[in-house]
Write a structure and sequence with these properties.
This protein has four helices and no strands. By secondary structure, the chain is mainly α. It has two domains: about 70 residues; about 80 residues. The termini are far apart.
C-alpha cells in the first residue's frame, strides 16, 4: 500500500517541482515590472522638477532682460543731446507728470472730503475715512520711493562714471 501511495504521489510531487521555477519566474517578472514602473515614475518626477527649474531660470533671465531694457531706456532718456530747451524738457517730464497726477489725485481727495463733510461727518472724522485705503498708502510710498531711490541711483551712477 505504501508503494502504491508513493507511486501515486511521485508524479504529483514531480509536477510541483517542475512548476516551482515557473511560479518563481512569474513572481519575479511581477516584481520586475513593479520596479520598472516605480523607476519610470521617479524619472517622470525628475523631468517635472527639471522642467520647473528651467522655467524658473527662464523667468529670472526674462526679468533680468526686462530690468536691463528699462535701465537702458532710462539712461537713453536722460542723455543730454546738446539742445538746451530739449534737454530742459527731457529733465522736466517726470516731475511735471508727477505734479499733474498729484494735483488731480489731491483734487479727487478734496472732493471726497467735501462730499463726506456735506453728508454730516466732521473734518476729523472724514479725513481718515478718505485717506485710509491700501491704494493711498501704496501710491504715496511708491512716489516717495521712486523719487528718493532714483536720486540715490543717479548719484551712484554718476560716481561710477
Amino acid at each position: 500500500m505504501l508503494v502504491a501511495l508513493i507511486g501515486l504521489l511521485s508524479p504529483l510531487i514531480g509536477g510541483i517541482i517542475r512548476l516551482a521555477p515557473e511560479i518563481m519566474k512569474f513572481f519575479d517578472k511581477k516584481l520586475e515590472r513593479a520596479h520598472e514602473l516605480a523607476m519610470q515614475d521617479k524619472a517622470l518626477e525628475f523631468e517635472k522638477m527639471r522642467g520647473a527649474n528651467r522655467m524658473a531660470e527662464l523667468g529670472a533671465e526674462f526679468q533680468v532682460t526686462q530690468l536691463d531694457a528699462i535701465g537702458k531706456a532710462a539712461t537713453s532718456q536722460m542723455r543730454k543731446i546738446g539742445i538746451r530747451w530739449v534737454d530742459a524738457m527731457n529733465t522736466l517730464v517726470r516731475p511735471i507728470v508727477t505734479y499733474i497726477f498729484l494735483a488731480m489725485y489731491c483734487g479727487v481727495k478734496i472732493c471726497a472730503l467735501i462730499t463726506t463733510m456735506q453728508e454730516g461727518a466732521g473734518f476729523l472724522t472724514a479725513l481718515p475715512v478718505i485717506w485710509n485705503t491700501d491704494f493711498d498708502g501704496g501710491l504715496f510710498g511708491s512716489i516717495l520711493g521712486f523719487w528718493f531711490v532714483s536720486r540715490v541711483y543717479d548719484k551712484r551712477m554718476a560716481g561710477a562714471a
